[in-house]
Every structure is written in structure tokens, then in C-alpha cells.
Amino acid sequence: MTLYIDADACPVKAEAERVATRLGVTMVLVSNGGIRPSANPLVQSVFVADGPDEADKWIAERAGPGDVVVTGDIPLAARCLEGGARVLKHDGLELTRASIGMVLATRDLMADLRAADPFRQGGGRMFSKADRSRFLDVLDRVLRAK
After folding, report:
1. CB count, 10 Å around CB of 1?
2. What is the pTM of this model?
3. Every domain of the chain and the residues it spans
4. DSSP-derived 3-state class of residue 55
5. Which class is 2-144 in CATH?
6. How far is CA 31 from the centre of its chain?
7. pLDDT tens digit string along 50-60?
8. Distance between CA 18 and CA 138 in Å, rounded?
């Protein structure tokens, strides 16, 4: 089992490392750079080429049954689920084969709404302490289930 982290803009890298270390799980941080490598022997840093979706491609090509992927990228989540991996969002929501279709549809709808109204402000809600706590609980549960 490997824990893959889509590390660019991931707010829970330190929390994931703590859980992975406690449970003896290898963790791979994948980014385009700018991430400080960890001294932890269970944590590997992979730096991919600059370019759109390079980290996503790297993760999707490797994540499979028994692995866990942490990402906020919905298309990457769908690819990893197709490959048999389990997927968690940063707020602790576990995405599944049953839920990913609705999540993709919602993402596409919101993109269309933003494109139709250039003055539309927004984005998601702020990442909270409750999100961080929920992530820790769910990650611990998912990694222990393996």
C-alpha cells in the first residue's frame, strides 16, 4: 500500500505524514516543485515536469488497488478510482465509484456557470479546523482498513 499525495496546494501534507508514519505506510508527495523534501524515510518526494496535469498523470499511472490517493482534483480522483485506488479529498470526504459521477457533474456545472457569468465571484468555502480533523479521522480509518 502506498499513500499518494497530490502535493501542490495540499493543505494536509503534514497531517498525512503523521498518520502514515504512525501506521508504517509509504507516502509519496508528487508536485511540480516547491515542496521541501521530508527527512522521514517513509516519505518520498517526486518532482514532475512543469506543465498542466503532470503530477496528476504520474499519480494516475501508478495508483492502484490497495493504494490511497489524497487530492482535490476531481478528474484525477476519477482516474484513480478507475484504477482501483481509494480517494480522499482534503476535507476528509472519501470519493467512491458510486459518488464520483455526481461530483464530476457538479464540477462541470459550476465551471459552466462561471464561464457564463464573468462577474461571478467565488470559489469554495474556507478550509477549516473541522475539515482538518475530519481528514485525519478518515485517513486513519482508511489506512487501517488495508
Report:
1. 15
2. 0.86
3. 2-144
4. helix
5. alpha beta
6. 12
7. 887 899 999 99
8. 13
